[in-house]
């Protein structure tokens, strides 16, 4: 949830990040504090290597110069679709139906199904902590149980009116993000509504359709999907024991 | 061998450590600074990426930063990984400990809101009728605030309000009430005794007001500062014969090789909770038994959102929407103002926002209709409020859990009291009453706020005071127990106020460092 000053702060932070990227002051400052780079063509550890001893395997590889030009590669999402592995077939079918209900394709923008959002959530929940896995599994099972009890068929086979009869009693406003409904199925519905929106809007298909420019649906995707944002790469990672 | 004895060893490189380094080195004192993380290379370490090229499509890696609600996948490398440096808390008392270990620490990412504390905070016991006061008053710190404000290039609007002390601003900001909704707020606030002002902010340089560009360069220019990055300090060591501190043990972040650095004085500036963890793991400076207690920060939250009828369905006439105001504390300023809570909060009101999908129990077409109807028609309110420092809110060392470097972690136990709950309720009621009086449609009102720690303004675990039996530090941020040990970050606070603490932390560090330099010159340390 973002208040007016939070928005200002975020905007300022974005401008700050852009300023960092553009302004020479900070990199120059950092460069000033860094040790001088080795002379062109010098092998790693060259100053000590000549003294013999422990050099080991250094030196090889690209040798001197700038190295070969990078070969262009593409991202995983450009070449294939996510394989759903985590949920059972019944759970995943219910998830797809609910995803299509909350994020249908409208006004020329692709919906959750076209964006592969259900498959992405199958992956994401499958690598999430146990309580989140249980929230989703329990919620999807409950949807199927409600559908079977009311209409004698699984949730995925319900029509729009029947779906509304199942989910409307479970849908609540959550104006404060940390106030998850105490009922686990209502909690699932509230979480899923946000997750499916973000998974859709953050997808490659959404960005390529120009969906980012259409805005309107909430979630964090709008400003990110099209133009990209500054991502911090792993900074000097540690060696895990 | 490059190893040497330093005059002062500084643990941490944020605003407090950076200020100590600047002041001490400019007085000719040699300093070694140890920082737990790497130095970020802004050119090398960041790349512009569309969200779908991030491994988790913007959702972040599950479980890695579960308490850092400020984190997203793009900035996740800024923060300390909770799986590398975990902490524990009771299941019924969640705590958000938000940390940065890059060189410069959290000074790289703060919001730059720049306030002084007032004597309503420094003299809290008398104002509140309970609790404790600081051993100093605004007058003691004012000259240092002024110098810090010049370094940080703070702008603001002078108000002459005792609860909102004016700074030595490098430029003035104007109160902009030109929009129709802000004029309405102004009309309604005045008879209610609610003052309106503007945000006070540090401009810094190129939009960055960090230790790495405002403080450390000056220290480096003296030739008296050396900085080691990726140096994780495990223990402050002592001379057994004198009881004085004489250096620290630290581990190389990558290899975990342990080293020892020596110094005449140790200044701890690792951030409130890391500083406290270090001292507790070292078994030092706690004859009072107070160390680790009185942990508190600020409540962030409360959300009241109202829609202006004339602006609905995209029909806002020009000049109606927009603008924002900052409302400094206005509760409990006089003894006649009887409330069911002590202390107070500030409020931010902004005009021109929209609701979000989760504000409604709708989906599909009905949801879209509501979002479209209210888009751009809203005025919103949120607050920063002061939590009460309480002895029972404390940290301890959890000896059963170690971090990635084998160092025992913190156990954090903080619970809110009715004071916080009543304060937030008062804020939500006040905003709702204002908005309804304006004739606006209130569509969201919640008096809920984030868990403790969320504000990233945690303070109080090595509080200062005149009595060594009830405080860890004296009024100069110097340990009562060990005269060559100083703690110059937020741990020294007695009360946090509702204000962003950066100006106060920096002013206290400046003041303590000048005192330390004087003591060293006199041979008293």
Number of strands of chain A: 1
Give the end-to-end Cα distance of chain B, rounded to a whole number of Å.
27 Å
- Count of β-strands of chain B: 18
Q: What is the percent of helical residues of chain A?
A: 40-55%
Structural Rg of chain B: 24 Å
- Main beta sheet of chain A, described? none
What portion of residues of chain B belong to β-strands? 15-25%
Secondary-structure map:
The complex is a heterodimer of chains A (241) and B (525).
Chain A: H1 4-22, H2 25-33, H3 46-49, H4 89-102, H5 117-126, H6 130-151, H7 160-167, H8 184-201, H9 204-208, H10 222-225, E1 229-232
Helix pairs in contact in A: 4-6, 5-8, 6-7, 6-8
Chain B: E1 5-11, H1 15-26, E2 31-34, E3 46-49, H2 119-122, H3 124-128, H4 138-152, E4 154-156, E5 171-172, H5 180-189, E6 201-202, H6 211-214, H7 216-221, E7 225-228, E8 231-238, E9 245-252, E10 258-268, H8 272-282, E11 298-307, E12 324-327, E13 345-353, H9 364-374, E14 378-386, E15 394-402, E16 408-413, H10 418-437, E17 441-449, E18 485-487, H11 502-522
Helix pairs in contact in B: 1-11, 4-11
What do these coordinates show?
The complex is a heterodimer of chains A (241) and B (525). Chain A has helices at 4-22, 25-33, 46-49, 89-102, 117-126, 130-151, 160-167, 184-201, 204-208, 222-225; one strand spanning 229-232. Chain A has ten helices and one strand; from the N terminus they run ααααααααααβ. Chain A is mainly alpha-helical. The model of chain A is unreliable at 1-53 and 214-227 (pLDDT under 50). With 525 residues, chain B is α/β, with parallel strands linked by helices. In chain B, 23% of the residues lie in helices and 21% in strands. At the A-B interface, helix 1, helix 2, helix 8, helix 9 and strand 1 of A face strand 3, strand 11, strand 13, helix 9 and strand 14 of B.
């Amino acid at each position: 949830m973002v208040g007016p000053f939070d928005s200002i702060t975020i905007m300022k932070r974005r401008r700050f990040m852009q300023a960092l990227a553009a302004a020479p002051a900070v990199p120059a400052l950092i460069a000033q504090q860094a040790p001088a780079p080795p002379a062109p063509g010098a092998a790693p550890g060259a100053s000590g290597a000549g003294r013999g001893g422990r050099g080991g395997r250094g030196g090889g590889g690209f040798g001197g110069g700038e190295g070969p030009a990078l070969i262009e590669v593409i991202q995983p999402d450009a070449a294939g679709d996510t394989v759903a592995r985590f949920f059972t077939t019944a759970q995943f079918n219910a998830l797809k139906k609910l995803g299509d209900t909350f994020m249908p394709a409208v006004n020329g923008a692709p919906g959750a199904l076209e964006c592969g959002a259900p498959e992405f959530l199958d992956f994401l929940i499958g690598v999430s902590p146990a309580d989140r896995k249980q929230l989703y599994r329990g919620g999807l099972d409950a949807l199927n149980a409600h559908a079977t009890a009311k209409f004698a068929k699984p949730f995925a086979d319900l029509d729009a009116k029947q779906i509304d009869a199942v989910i409307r009693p479970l849908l609540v406003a959550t104006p404060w993000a940390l106030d998850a409904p105490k009922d686990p199925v209502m909690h699932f519905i509230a979480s899923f509504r946000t997750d499916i929106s973000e998974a859709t809007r953050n997808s490659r298909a959404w960005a390529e359709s120009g969906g980012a420019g259409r805005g309107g649906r909430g979630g964090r995707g709008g400003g990110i999907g099209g133009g990209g944002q500054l991502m911090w790469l792993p900074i000097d990672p540690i060696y895990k024991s | 061998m490059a190893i040497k004895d330093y005059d002062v060893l500084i643990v941490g490189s944020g605003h407090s450590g950076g200020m100590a380094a600047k002041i001490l080195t400019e007085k000719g004192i040699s300093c070694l600074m140890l920082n737990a993380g790497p130095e970020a290379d802004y050119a090398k370490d960041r790349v512009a990426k569309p969200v779908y090229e991030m491994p988790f499509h913007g959702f972040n890696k599950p479980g890695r930063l579960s308490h850092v609600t400020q984190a997203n996948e793009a900035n996740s490398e800024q923060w300390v990984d909770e799986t590398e440096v975990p902490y524990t808390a009771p299941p019924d008392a969640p705590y958000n400990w938000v940390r940065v270990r890059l060189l410069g620490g959290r000074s790289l990412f703060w919001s730059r809101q720049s306030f002084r504390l007032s004597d309503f905070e420094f003299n809290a016991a008398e104002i509140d009728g309970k609790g404790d006061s600081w051993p100093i008053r605004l007058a003691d710190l004012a000259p240092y605030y002024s110098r810090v404000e010049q370094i940080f290039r703070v702008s603001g609007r002078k108000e002459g309000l005792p609860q909102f002390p004016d700074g030595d601003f490098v430029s003035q900001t104007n109160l902009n009430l030109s929009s129709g909704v802000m004029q309405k707020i102004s009309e309604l606030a005045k008879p209610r005794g609610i003052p309106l002002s503007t945000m006070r902010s540090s401009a810094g340089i190129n939009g960055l007001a960090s230790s790495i560009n405002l403080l450390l360069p000056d220290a480096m220019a003296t030739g008296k500062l050396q900085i080691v990055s990726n140096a994780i300090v495990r223990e402050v060591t002592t001379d057994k014969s004198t009881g004085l501190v004489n250096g620290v043990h630290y581990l190389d972040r990558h290899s975990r090789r342990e080293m020892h650095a020596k110094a005449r004085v140790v200044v701890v500036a690792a951030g409130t909770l890391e500083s406290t963890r270090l001292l507790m793991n070292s078994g030092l400076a706690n004859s009072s038994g107070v160390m680790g207690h009185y942990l508190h920060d600020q409540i962030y939250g409360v959300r009241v959102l109202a829609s202006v009828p004339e602006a609905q369905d995209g029909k806002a006439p020009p000049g109606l929407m927009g603008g924002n105001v900052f409302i400094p504390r206005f509760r409990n300023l006089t003894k006649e103002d009887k409330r069911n809570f002590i202390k107070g909060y500030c409020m931010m009101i902004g005009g021109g926002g929209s609701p979000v999908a989760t504000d409604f129990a709708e989906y599909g077409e009905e949801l879209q209709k509501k979002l479209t109807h209210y888009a751009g028609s809203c005025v919103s309110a949120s607050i920063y409020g002061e939590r009460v420092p309480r002895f029972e809110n404390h940290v301890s060392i959890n000896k059963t859990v170690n971090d990635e470097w084998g160092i025992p972690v913190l156990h954090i136990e903080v619970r809110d009291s009715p004071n916080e709950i009543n304060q937030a309720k008062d804020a939500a009621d006040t905003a709702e009453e204002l908005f309804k009086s304006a004739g606006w449609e209130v569509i969201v009102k919640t008096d809920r706020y984030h868990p403790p720690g969320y504000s990233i303004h945690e303070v109080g675990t090595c509080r200062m005071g005149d009595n060594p039996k009830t405080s860890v530090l004296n009024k100069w941020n110097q340990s009562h127990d060990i005269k060559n040990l100083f703690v110059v970050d937020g741990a020294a606070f007695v009360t946090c106020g509702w204000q962003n603490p950066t100006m106060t932390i920096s002013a206290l560090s400046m003041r303590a460092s000048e005192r330390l330099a004087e003591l060293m010159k006199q041979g008293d340390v």
